[in-house]
Design a protein that fits this description.
Elements: H1 4-29, H2 43-59, H3 73-90, H4 94-117, H5 125-147, H6 152-171, H7 176-199, H8 208-226, H9 231-239, H10 244-247, H11 256-284
Helix pairs in contact: 1-2, 1-7, 2-3, 2-7, 2-8, 3-4, 3-8, 4-5, 4-8, 5-8, 6-7, 6-8, 6-11, 7-8, 8-9, 9-11
Length: 287
């Protein structure tokens, strides 16, 4: 059972920081650019700064190099944020965005896996790491392309629809700490949805997938490598955000709300399978 402070730091704090950074980014630039451009760059720092603020409030600074491999997520948040910021601000062409995602995911998963790869007996971990990195890239790249067409609020809803079930699955995988960190990541998107109500469609989602997706990939890999997250649940949660593309195929004559609901529903349907499976296994184990 989490304390009141942990629930505040993992839920309210990242949501508030994310929303405030988005609004501040708009206020800083709205007099220099048009209404659409003025908010297009603030998404990546909103996610990264909210995640880092909540992490520091919960666990403090973990040092370099960190003692726990999972703690690499905190120092790696800064360079990943910078990549996302560059992508959103300069509107990189698709090949550059693909390269940025590949580098961010590969470095993050490699850093987390380094203690296992350095072990004397390699039981195939390097091969599994390669497969996990490739799958994460293949799911994040199409999602990043979709993000360029959506508002930040809408993309935040899609990412929250996978982040919340991921927190449940990781929390039931034998690591309450991973579940708490995943809750922080999901809460950054709750703040994005709240800010999206105010900022509207002009707050674009460029670069957000790079930051959120890299951190999510790191958490899911940590759940598999250091806890008991199953391969099936990890694959479902990895693939879930890309199900948002299925919602785009809903006939436009049904209106924006139906199209939006179909996107969220497709993502949530896939992600909740993993969450329910993990919860049932948790209950069966009597934990």
């Amino acid at each position: 059972m989490f304390s009141a402070w942990e629930m505040f730091a993992a839920g309210v704090l990242p949501a508030a920081v994310s929303a405030m950074v988005l609004v501040a980014g708009w206020r800083v630039t709205r007099h220099r650019y048009g209404s659409r451009e003025s908010r297009s760059w603030a998404g990546p720092p909103a996610v990264a700064l909210a995640f880092a603020a909540a992490w520091l409030a919960l666990f403090g600074w973990t040092g370099l190099p960190p003692q726990d491999a999972i703690d690499w997520l905190l120092p790696l948040t800064l360079p990943v944020m910078l990549l996302g910021l560059l992508e959103s601000y300069y509107r990189w062409p698709p090949p550059a965005g693909v390269l940025a995602i590949a580098v961010a995911v590969a470095v993050t998963l490699l850093a987390i896996s380094w203690p296992l790869l350095g072990a004397s007996a390699d039981d195939g971990m390097s091969g599994r790491l390669f497969v996990a990195t490739t799958l994460a890239m293949l799911t994040l790249i199409p999602l990043d392309l979709l993000a360029q067409r959506l508002s930040f609020g809408r993309m935040s809803a899609i990412l929250f629809a996978v982040g919340a079930p991921a927190a449940i699955a990781l929390g039931c995988s034998g690591s309450a700490r991973l579940g708490l960190i995943a809750t922080v990541l999901a809460a950054t998107q709750a703040g994005g949805m709240a800010a999206g109500v105010v900022l509207g469609r002009s707050a674009t989602a460029r670069g957000v997938v790079l930051v959120f997706g890299t951190l999510l990939a790191g958490l899911l890999w940590s759940g598999y490598a250091y806890a008991s997250l199953s391969v099936v649940d990890g694959l479902l949660l990895t693939a879930a955000p890309s199900a948002a593309w299925l919602g785009r195929w809903a006939p436009r004559r049904f209106g924006w709300s139906v199209n939006f609901a179909s996107q969220i529903g497709a993502v949530l349907a896939v992600a909740m399978i993993a969450a329910v499976r993990a919860w049932l296994e948790f209950r069966a184990a009597g934990l």
